[in-house]
Amino acid sequence: TSLTGSISGLSGTNKLTGAGDFVSGVANLSTKLIYTGTVGTGTFTFTPQSGTAVTSGSVQINAGAATRLVITGTGTQTAGVS
Question: Does the predicted model carry a pTM greater than 0.85?
Answer without folding.
Answer: no
